[in-house]
# Entry
Amino acid sequence: MTWRPLLPWAGLVLAGLVGTGVCVLGLLRTYPTGAVLSRVGWAARIVMVWTLVVVAAQPSTTTTVPVGTSASNVDVLLVVDRTGSMAAQDWDGDRPRLDGVRADVATLVDALPGVRWSVLAWDSQAVRTLPFTSDAHALMSWVASLRQEITVYSGGSQIDRPLEKLAEIVADETERRPQALQYVVIMSDGESTLDSPWMSFRGLHGHVAGGAVLGYGTNEGGQMRSYDGAADPDPDAPWITDDSGRPAVSRIDEQVLTAVAGQLEVPYLHRTGPDGADLVAWAKDLARVTKTEPGRTVTTYLAQTWPMAVLLALALAVEVVLAVPRRTRRSR
# Structure
């Protein structure tokens, strides 16, 4: 219990003594007729005076509440492939591979509370679509809006397309937060539709603390629906076709994905369905090195004046009860 007086204590005590003095003078001037009731009334008024003094002194309890999110020493950068092949319907049966990305991001968010998240998405170009934030709701909102690239704008796919932007982000964040541990999670099917050789990710090793490569798709492959950029994709949209005009089939390239994982010296996980046991196991290993520092807190005060309100109500009830006989005598 603490006190937060509206006036200096001396002022409150003086006000209480003055009010008490007035009541005592009234008590001394009480006439013999009805003396007992009058004395009770003046005593009730003295109670009112000191009740108000106590209310003005504001007896309060304190509590500490957080006003900021917790700060973690782990930054996780999700590098998400959203080229047309990620719409291939061979994840968990016949669902698009991007559904697997959404499910895995949700699994990671649940397994790694408090870390900071960022997203680098790529299709025809690499774009950082979410800066680092500890707000998991912002990440999940982005994931909910995740779509494949618009089909007519497709420029083919290659695993190293986000590499330059990825290296730039890692360098910037290392300079900005040297105490943080940078983790990179690449989410792709590894498929390349270009003939040029892809650049190695080995240059990132040593600049990141770790990460993982998550592969989506099957060796049998799946067909892909075209996408026109609508907010709600048409589930019956035409199939993306190959050069012969037949529905194209996309297959995972695990050789490329395992090679990238080897260059980064991180594990490769083949994600074929919603079972996240291996992903959770990896996240738990990461969680062991996560150190979370509490955010800023403030002390709040909760006034405890309700007992005084009850006492004041009782004193007022006495005053009301005594006022009725006085008015009756005057009318007579």
In short: The longest strand covers residues 59-66.
